[in-house]
Amino acid sequence: QYYGGPNNLITKRNATNHIPNNDDESEEKSGRRVWRAIQDTDDEWTNILNSKNNSSIAYMTADGTSSAVETKHWRMAHHNDRRSIDESLSRICEQQEREGGRMKQSQLGVLREDPHEDMRLLQENFTVASLASAVRDREDTLQHCATLLSQNRLEELTKILNPYNRQFILSRRRSKEKRLDFRNGFDNQNIEFLRKGLNRMPRTVSTAHSKRAGVVLPLCNVDGVPCILFEKRSRRLRAHPDEVCLPGGMVSEGDDKTIIQTCLREMEEEIGIGHNAVSVLGVLRCNWGEVHHLVGVAVTPVVCYLGDLDKFQLHPNPDECAECFTVPLELFLDRESWVHKQNYAPFFVGGPHIIWGLTGYIIHRFVMDLLGHYNVVFDT
């Protein structure tokens, strides 16, 4: 599957239809993995295990062995969330969310096809003077074209308008972009591309906040498939129970010298991955005003690479984490898997659970602001 150009959120319905059939339990490279906490195992998961004649408690805490059991759980959760998506969205942001549609498209825009993304990039990356000059030049060009048309000088008019032809614009954008090849999962080359991309992101002016936190955006390979690792919070927690999140937490002023130290400490406490096994790629620079509006806390996302999760034994802390699960990176590049509503963070509905709120916002920014600068290739 190939996603070309900066608008690599191309609708590819076959990209989301990777869920194996109910009778197919032998898919080798699905990239779908689940780790359940012992104390948070529910009846549904137990029934799945019993149906496979597997009663090992160690298995339920994810011993790192790929199996059709966890693939079936991933598929069942995805199917159940799909069936109740209207009810879930209504619960999250009330009835009006059900009436929201996907982001409407116009033409190819200046930098991006998506009009909202195009406007955001123009405002954040160009000065008022440069934008005013561009508007003036564009107006002069339109007036000149109108004059040529009124004089029936069509050959000259065609030469002026050719650079605005759709195929010319797409070709020009592709020629300026680099290729990000994920056919072999995350490797040294594409990880280095991501590291450089994070370092080149526009700097933003930070403001003082009384509450600071950090979260990890964990990239990993599962069965050779590039994925993102998520947590599902324990239903016993008072704040945001049973919701999908990224590893992380509040800054400990006495213990944490940097926000990266906060992220790595929290991830080890929550799912048992030590800091020595993690490669930090950089900070995903977001609009801090939007982040603060979503959660009331200054949250810094740190992108990390965990390597091959096949080599890890994840141990979700049942006091904080009900389960960990992975979602293939390719699914996040499908427009049909995202739901947009004004004044809400984007919703991702292509995985086993709905991803929304701050987590949905961070993943969407990662896809648009970082992956959006590359021609992205997947082996599907």
**What is the strand tally?**
13
Radius of gyration: 23 Å
- Average pLDDT: 79
Broad structural category = alpha+beta
Count of DSSP-assigned helices: 13
Distance between the termini: 5 Å
Share of helix, binned: 25-40%
Strand residue content: 15-25%
Largest sheet: 8 strands, mixed
Q: Spell the H/E element sequence.
A: EHEHHHHHHHHEHEEEEHEHEEEEHE
Oligomer: single chain
Shape: elongated
Residue windows where pLDDT falls under 50 for at least 5 positions? 4-27, 52-64, 95-105
Can you describe this structure?
With 380 residues, this protein is of the alpha+beta class. Helices cover 37% and strands 17% of the residues. It is built from 13 helices and 13 strands. The protein has helices at 13-16, 43-51, 57-60, 68-83, 85-93, 115-125, 128-150, 154-161, 166-175, 188-199, 259-271, 288-295, 357-370, and strands at 2-3, 34-36, 178-181, 212-222, 225-233, 244-245, 248-250, 279-283, 298-308, 321-328, 338-339, 347-348, 374-377. Strands 2, 4, 5, 6, 7, 8, 9 and 10 form an eight-stranded mixed β-sheet that branches. Strands 1-13-3 form a three-stranded mixed β-sheet, with no helix packed on it. Strands 11-12 form a two-stranded antiparallel sheet. Mean pLDDT is 79; it is low at 4-27, 52-64 and 95-105.
